[in-house]
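User: What would this chain look like folded?
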Amino acid sequence: MSTHVIYARKSTESDDRQVLSIDSQIQELKLVALRQGLVVSDVLTEARSAKAPGRLVFDQLMRRVDRGEVGSILCWKADRLARNHADTGRVLQALADHRLQSVITPDRTYTGDGNDRFMAGFEFGVATKFIDDLRANIKRGMRARRERGWPSYRPPIGYLEERGTKETIKDPLRFDLVRRLWDMLLSGAMRPSQIAKYANDELGLRTPKSSHAGGNLIQVQLVYKIFKSRFYLGLPLHRATGETWTGRWPAMVTQEEFDRAQEILGRSSRPRPSKHEFAYSGMLRCGQCQGVLTPELHPRPNGKTYLYYRCRGRLAPRHCTAPALPEHVFETQILNDLRRLAVPPETGQWILENLRRDLSRDKARHETTRHSLRAALAATEQEWGRLVTMKQRDQIDDETFEPRRADLQARKASLRQKLTQPASTTEQLVDRAAEILEFSATAPAAFLKAKDDPVGRRQILQAVSSNWIVEDKKCVYLAKEPFSFLSGGGSNIHCLSVAKDLRRWLQKAAYFPPLPRFTNEPRETAPHAA
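Assistant: Here's the prediction, encoded as structure tokens.
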């Protein structure tokens, strides 16, 4: 006795929106079985697209057919069984070998007869062609959106898709908050795990709500995803082709900021979360063995607790003998160095006036830079044209063409973005210099005030220095530009030299790292007048 099985399938994708629901298919097929006097032994259902092989229920059904356990399959239409060549071949071959007696639909019955198999193959082919056309149309539409500068997917947190025009715009509630997360990372004030906590507890940031999900807390994984995404740069990467394309939405970060963020995230010595918050954890290295110094709390019988930074190299196999560095000794050194960087108000005012005068004389600088960028873009366009011509003439193969194509596309996108960015004016550069001088003047007092704020102290130290090496309870480090120009302070400062160095730095620097902000922080009294 032949076994008859009902197979009902409906995909959640757009190509099956007009198909009957699974329950409706089962009801109609049971009526077909009743009219033909067939006894249905089993009903199989599946909610998955048939555009590619790999359906679990269908595979189980065909294995039963191969074992001779199924005589006929009832389905709403032939495309419910197969919409790809692999599954089509399995069904047609089973009919040809008479392992499957028939495929029954409400319209007709397909048997192992040559004409029936021809008609079944035609129906399966139409279904497969529909999928091929649909895939081509979707890819064409996605490619057209990229060419217009818009993504074909939902934008990440910080952006929204405008319903009417389908254009990507700033999220008025979240854009500035996400930018603050970038500032926290770039300033070195927080690790990604701390940034996630800061976003949830301090900013109240939540994921955008949709019809199915959203409104959730910011997880650490999402923070890493944000900092790795080129979408915020305005130059996303197409995964399938490796091509960089230019988005028309407002970028949240510059190329230099994005590159800096990748350097920070790529540090192998990034400190791990701990129960206690230590200001300099993961920053200090031993001058003898280059090991990382770890903080240790030592309580005393009098109730006081002292903090030391000790080299991990003291453990086997290195057995480093470097002495521990008391935190108060290190902070005393830092405070004295910050005071040497402080510029008195009169000196700072003279430097700014001199800087404004010199920058005003250099008005041709902006146009020279833009002319250089336009020339570079024109040369890249010519190189692109020559590459396409060589490909059309079969002078290069695909293996050579694809990497060059991706490289030129990325270069063009980057140059176009730089040309669209407005150049800094003289007043903007002077304001930046004023911010630096103001920070140098208020940093010592802010460092003293941040006694119970390890994040604030760490932020100040990372703003002015890097590469901290400890030897004999003394730390040697590099002063970052432009603070390295200010070393000396007070009457020892060379005002003209500082003005020239600041001017050179402002003109060449493509990225200005964010500085910690202090509210109403007093200046320390300078030891000498300018």
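The first strand starts at residue 4 and ends at 9. If you want, I can go into more detail on any region.
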